[in-house]
User: Which sequence fits this backbone?
């Protein structure tokens, strides 16, 4: 997670569940491009058509609640979103986003200030979210050290591969 | 300061101190995926460079969501999972010998007291009824567990929930958990564990405990755990597929918060559209007319659920304009219900009884709703579009309330259909 992102915000409310992020009827595929086409369809059928690559989803509390389907962060990536900013995330979605490499930022103040259409820039290294439309900057709490290690390893797949190699050498 | 149950379980599976808030590497006792999450997990497993699962008897794949496969795409997906399971020699059961994962695995003794269980399905928390730290993850997380036999878990703060008093016959596990979610909201236990206890639990059948643990995730919780008692241990001992060591909270455990409920005054409740925390007493919901009733799912497809619904429907008819779909959660439940004559009660009432599957609960198959249709369901989520059209409505309730509603054609408090004697007789065991 080294690059900074900027784009237009698409704002949603609290408790955006995984069923509206990607409805179960599409869970016969786990392909990013396929799932991306239906992202947010049941809450905003025009989202994918109206957004541009690099735009971000901004939401209130408990984003990604519900099903464990990893297809939800994959669909958001597949739609071309650069990241999700929310007041808080549901636990499984939080883990899944880190595991599949979807950048997420928990920042209640930024989430409250940003409205649909605002230009937003995020610098994950500096830990800042800037609402350029409103001229406001917010600090993001850093990830716990273990999660930083996981993220800098490139996600859970390379991390697990490294652990397996260490075990093979140790054996 | 003493440990809560979840903290005690994590400490027993980790070399770390497992203080609250600490991220611990923990050994996992059992790990499973289903026909939706299994194929992507198999793919991640291969990308990790893993060649075999950590233990064939502790890793499982269960086809239950779209199976018997609803279309070609789901058949292809299920096939990928099955091929992986066969290649690995891990636990796998075909349609006809399986059931909904969260009902089937405890029945077969694969989820046991004191365990850490990871499942690629959010309702893995159901296993908490057995005093296990059983929690849902995504496919990649699960793949890493299959490869490494371990995962990372943060030691969560715990909300202690006590049920006091004597439970009237019309109060089921579903009414108890919906009442809790209604009080604390869908994020009231986010990043936390729920620990259930109190004297009101002592007489509570295991099946109702599974229902309560099942919906812990609907309050945002990582796990919903019951402190093991004699009933838990008896259930586990009679079914255990391997050794287990139950864990217990310390008497001076530090809880983040306490919630207490009096069962004496509790009545049937329902979660109205479109959130599991939009909970009201059934009698205050305005008796909306309904098009469908679904009795089943990992929440309420167990024997006691089927039994209480059947007893209420005995000799009655489903309202002419209503579809009533009954799905036992496993073949153990299906066969027991058949032996008791309950399945016949449903079909004679005009309901349809289907093979064990998650189908309708997630809008998968066998019970999809059209725009404008309204369903009373014993499942666990009533999000927009959960059971079909985003313009449909879902009301969550207990099997008793669902059965009463099927008969009247409107959302109905079971006390408005049955006498007090009926509910007394329900508590036979």
Assistant:
């Amino acid at each position: 997670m080294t690059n900074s992102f900027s784009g237009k915000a698409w704002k949603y409310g609290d408790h955006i569940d995984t069923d509206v992020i990607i409805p179960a009827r599409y869970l016969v595929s786990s392909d990013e491009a396929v799932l991306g086409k239906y992202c947010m369809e049941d809450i905003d059928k025009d989202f994918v058509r109206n957004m541009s690559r690099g735009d971000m989803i901004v939401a209130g509390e408990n984003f990604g609640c519900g099903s464990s389907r990893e297809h939800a962060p994959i669909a958001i990536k597949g739609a071309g979103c650069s990241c999700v900013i929310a007041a808080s995330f549901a636990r499984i979605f939080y883990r899944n986003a880190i595991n599949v490499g979807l950048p997420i930022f928990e920042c209640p103040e930024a989430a409250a200030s940003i409205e649909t259409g605002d230009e937003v820039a995020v610098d994950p290294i500096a830990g800042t979210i800037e609402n350029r439309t409103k001229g406001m900057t917010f600090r993001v709490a850093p990830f716990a050290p273990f999660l930083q290690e996981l993220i800098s390893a490139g996600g859970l797949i390379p991390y697990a591969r490294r652990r397996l190699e260490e075990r093979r050498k140790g054996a | 300061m003493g440990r809560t149950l979840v903290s005690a379980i994590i400490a027993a599976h980790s070399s770390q101190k497992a203080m609250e808030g600490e991220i611990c590497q923990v050994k996992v006792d059992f790990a499973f995926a289903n026909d939706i999450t299994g194929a992507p997990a198999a793919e991640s497993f291969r990308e990790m460079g893993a060649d075999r699962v950590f233990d064939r008897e502790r890793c499982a794949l269960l086809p239950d969501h779209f199976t018997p496969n609803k279309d070609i795409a789901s058949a292809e997906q299920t096939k990928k999972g099955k091929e992986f399971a066969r290649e690995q020699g891990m636990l796998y059961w075909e349609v006809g010998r399986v059931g909904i994962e969260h009902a089937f695995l405890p029945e077969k003794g694969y989820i046991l007291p004191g365990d850490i269980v990871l499942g690629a399905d959010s309702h893995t928390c159901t296993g908490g009824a057995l005093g296990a730290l059983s929690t849902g993850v995504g496919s990649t997380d699960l793949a890493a567990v299959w490869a490494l036999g371990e995962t990372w878990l943060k030691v969560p703060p715990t909300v202690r929930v006590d049920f006091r008093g004597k439970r009237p016959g019309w109060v089921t596990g579903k009414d108890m958990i919906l009442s809790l979610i209604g009080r604390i909201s869908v994020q009231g236990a986010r990043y936390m564990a729920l620990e259930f206890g109190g004297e009101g639990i002592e007489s509570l059948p295991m099946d109702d405990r599974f229902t309560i643990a099942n919906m812990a995730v609907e309050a945002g919780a990582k796990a919903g755990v019951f402190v093991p008692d004699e009933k838990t241990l008896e259930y586990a001992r009679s079914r255990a597929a391997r050794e287990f060591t139950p864990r217990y909270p310390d008497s001076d455990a530090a809880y983040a918060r306490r919630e207490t409920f009096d069962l004496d005054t509790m009545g049937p409740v329902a979660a109205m559209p479109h959130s599991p925390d939009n909970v009201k007493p059934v009698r205050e919901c305005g008796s909306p007319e309904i098009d469908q009733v679904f009795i089943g799912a990992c929440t309420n497809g167990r024997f006691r659920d089927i039994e209480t619904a059947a007893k209420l429907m005995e000799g009655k008819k489903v309202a002419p304009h209503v579809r009533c779909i009954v799905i036992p959660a496993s073949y153990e439940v299906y066969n027991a219900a058949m032996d008791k004559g309950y399945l016949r009660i449903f079909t004679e009432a005009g309901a349809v009884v289907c093979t064990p599957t998650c189908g309708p609960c997630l809008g998968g198959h066998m019970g999809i709703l059209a725009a404008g249709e309204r369903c009373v369901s014993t499942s666990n989520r009533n999000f927009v579009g959960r059971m079909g059209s985003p313009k449909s409505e879902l009301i969550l309730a207990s099997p008793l309330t669902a059965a009463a509603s099927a008969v009247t054609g409107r959302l109905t408090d079971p006390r408005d259909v049955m006498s007090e004697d009926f509910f007394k007789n329900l508590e036979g065991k």
